Amino acid sequence: MSFIKKFIEQETVNRRNLLLASAYGLGGLAALGALGPNAVRAATANPTIAWSYRDRTNPYWNYIVSGGEAFVESLGLPKTALVNLINEGSSEKSLADVKALLGKNGSKVALAIDANDAPNCRPVVEAVAAAGAYVSTIWNKTDDLHPWDFGDHYVSHMTWSDEGPAEQTARILMDAMGKKGGVVHLGGIASNNPAIERLNGLKKALKDYPDVQLLDAQPADWDTQKANQVMAGFITRYGDEIKGVHCANDTIAYGVLEALRAEGIEGMPVVSYDGNQQAVELVAKGQILATVFTNPYWGGGISAALAYYAATGAFKPSNEPKEHREFYGPTILVTPKDALEFKAKYLDTNPKYDWKDFWGPSKGQIQYKS
């Protein structure tokens, strides 16, 4: 498990370097100030393609951006043509970067973005629509915000139905615990839709396990180092009461495993989410019981493709049915019995995708709870 310790150390170095690169690359854009009022314009040729995301040091987001780069290369452009807007988990920076990009390029923008938290999605979409540009969002938005309310300029929103898969991993976890004892949950950013759904999945599963107690649930902000600290605190507080750990993503699990190792705890049942390569390798070894793959490479590429082809007029979003404007991405449960086969198919080499097949692997229209 030495790679986990190295992962934590390298994460700090990479994050610092990314912040410096981001500040350098966006300095000229930020100087342009906030977006002024712009008239809505027609579709345009050769829009600037951008991806706004949290942090490429996180393997999940690296897959996302790699998919975006693959799409850009499919257009005959170098991957460096993709503009990277790195928000480091700050909704304020996310919005400021988008406005700066629009201030420089106006309507000639095709943007893919995770707005970082649900409330930030609306001002991002409003800024893009006001500029006459085009945006596809993933993961985080409020339930009352819909692409069809913005004509063609809010192209699409994709999320993943996390509650069901998180419930599956929770059941695997509690079965491994012998259906009794205490479980702890380490979540993402508290206001993130996937963080909420993944905790809800655990709580739903708990209803069928009366002898399992949820000892504690704390946010770890999708971060390995914070997860390490949170788990160390759980061990101090609950000690031997902890019989299993439910993690909201793989990078959280890495911090958990390192905290357990530091205390000499071996064989603790742990489950995670995202299906990153290192996590899948740990699943194959039985050190993580299960993870869930959301195909971020496809998600990153297709989100950029949707925004780009809407911007160029290749298709008109407002002519599409609602299930093409808001839709679920694919999920695959990965367990020890199939981890190596899964790794060979999806991770050892990136599958080839038709980036004009916008909805092929998608899983239907998003459903909202009343």
Silhouette: elongated
How many strands in all? 12
- Indicate the structural class: alpha/beta
Rg, Å, rounded: 21 Å
Q: What low-confidence regions span 5 or more consecutive residues with pLDDT below 50?
A: 18-41
Order of helices and strands: HEHEHEHEEHEHEHEHEHEHEEH
CATH topology assignment of the largest domain: Rossmann fold
Q: Characterize the largest beta sheet: strand count, sense, and whether it forms a barrel.
A: 6 strands, parallel
Q: What do these coordinates show?
A:
By secondary structure, the chain is α/β, with parallel strands linked by helices. It has two domains: 2-160 and 295-329, Rossmann fold; 163-293, Response regulator (Rossmann fold, 3-Layer(aba) Sandwich). It has eleven helices and twelve strands. It has helices at residues 2-30, 59-74, 91-105, 118-131, 163-176, 193-206, 224-238, 250-262, 277-284, 296-311, 339-346; strands spanning 48-53, 83-86, 109-113, 134-138, 154-159, 181-187, 212-219, 242-247, 270-271, 291-293, 326-328, 332-334. The strands form three sheets. Strands 2-1-3-4-5-11 form a six-stranded parallel sheet, with helices on both faces. The chain has a four-stranded parallel sheet with strand order 7-6-8-9, sandwiched between helices. Helix 6 (193-206) links the parallel strand 6 (181-187) and strand 7. Helix 1 (2-30) crosses helix 8, helix 5 (163-176) packs across helix 6 (193-206) and helix 7 packs across helix 8.
